[in-house]
Amino acid sequence: MNACLTQPITMPDSPFHITGEAEAILPARNNAGKPITVIGTEAIRSTFDQFCIDQALNSRSAPGVTDLVLNPDAHSGYGAPVGCVMVSPTHIYPGPVGVDIKCSMSLLQMDIPADEIADKTIRRRLIEAIVARTPTGAGRGQREAKKSRRVSPELGVQVCTEGASQSVCEALGIPPEWALRCEDSAHIGHDGTVSALQERLDKMRAFNGFPTFDNKMTQLGSYGGGNHFGECEIVKLSDDPAMRETAKVFGLQDNRVAFLSHCGSRGFGNILAQRQFKALEGFFRTWGLPFPAEDKQLVYAPLGTPEANAYLDDMALGANFATVNHMLINALVLEAFQEVLPGTKGQLVYFISHNIARQEIVDNQPAWVHRKGATRAFPAGHHALQDTPFASTGHPILLPGNPRDGSVVMVAKPDAVKSCYSVNHGAGRCMGRKAAARALDQKAVDADFETHDILYNSRQYPIDEAPNAYKNFNEVLRSVEAAGLAQQVCHLKARFVIKDAAEADD
To answer: Does residue 40 contact residue 73 with C-beta atoms inside 8 Å?
Structure first.
């Protein structure tokens, strides 16, 4: 059993009001406004420590916030908890987007039967072919991978302003049709134009204002460090007939190989976010405004102000980078499989983000929905899915668990409306990185992977990323399904992992 649930965090008096098997509410401070929606069984709620709860309360009471959702994977983050949804019709908050703008998941389905990669030698060759194309680790880019794509600064500008446009895809060898399977294939400026992004980027680069831009563009097609990874999977479809029909729409193939990726906007997005935090903090001090709950990580900008416009443009630039980063990684992974297993064909299942603010309709009015470590969950018939391949089913939801216990693809149900059409983005940490390094045994972690016949690219598996550093994934999934938010379409069984053991940059 997962160590995080055998030793739950106990609080003298539970702050939650239980409303269902996996649902509760957390009253806002002084009962001021709508309470916080909490998704999670009793076992999951026991993993929410006081700091996480305080961050949720602080975020709910921040100016302009109308709704806050705490998902089962919730744990303390930057200003707002990781694993929360924060809604505001009037303000934009950089903190609940975070430093890794548009950190996302993507899934590539290939036509290879599972038994073709049963042999460890084949898997080792695949690991080597992927690592030769997709570098891992903090600060690493194309120079560290001899078969990666080379991206010029000029193409980098196009990537950041256009996202996965046809011309960008063609320049990088990405199948242009994959853009149809993205949550958002491109982001535009605050005024609805691409030119706003171009002007913003030109302004930042003028007079050496972004001296590292050229270097950051060389990180396209790379994972980074920390919790970012690539993972080879075997697809096991649900036995439910309706879910098997949904799987056909998604393009999932039973007992065949797939590849799951987790990464974001790398150093480029980090710089954009850090600059915005610093700038808005400076504005607050100049204006003499109090920080929400005395937390400078909850700085904000009222919509329509120059400060809000600047942030929305920067977020769009970072999001476009993240989108193309994923598309390129998937193209390179497919190329690696074709090198080792000639004739391999692959199709993108979906690309979906979990660190982004998007304008959506909440309670019949436009609002900015900030998802911090939370995943969009639109069911069949949702107006935003019109003219997409998923209008009749709902879109794929990619939820990573851990290599040992697997990951899943889910699809939203109509009741997802009660969580602002959102679910968790994975299992969620229950141990900090330093705590995991102290509490877990490296030999036991590596032996666990050996027992489950899961290979990895590093000499030893990063102990701060071990399965037991995360919440019990089965309990997290039970929370989602018991709350009626989503249903499992397939399970993904890991066969090897690409992950860096260096310093986290997530």
So the answer is: no
Per-residue pLDDT tens over the stretch 217-265: 999 999 988 899 999 999 999 999 999 999 999 999 999 999 999 999 9
Among 222, 225, 267, CA closest to 502? 225
CATH superfamily of 3-498: tRNA-splicing ligase RtcB (3.90.1860.10)
- How far apart are the C-alpha atoms of 188 and 447, rounded to whole Å? 47
The Cα–Cα gap between 89 and 361 comes to: 9
Asked if 383 and 362 count as a contact pair (C-beta separation under 8 A), the reply is no
The answer to whether 384 touches 371, Cβ cutoff 8 Å, is no
Taking CA atoms, 239 is separated from 236, 245, 247, 270, 405, in Å, by 9, 10, 11, 42, 19
357 contacts 369 by C-beta, under 8 angstroms? yes
Per-residue pLDDT tens over the stretch 80-116: 999 999 999 999 999 999 999 999 999 999 999 999 9
Structure tokens at 234: 């075997």
How far does Cα 368 stand from its chain's mean position? 18
Q: Find out whether 9 and 47 touch, Cβ atoms under 8 Å.
A: yes
Place of tokens 């929370």: 479
Please report, in angstroms and rounded to a whole number, the separation of the first and last CA atoms in the chain: 27
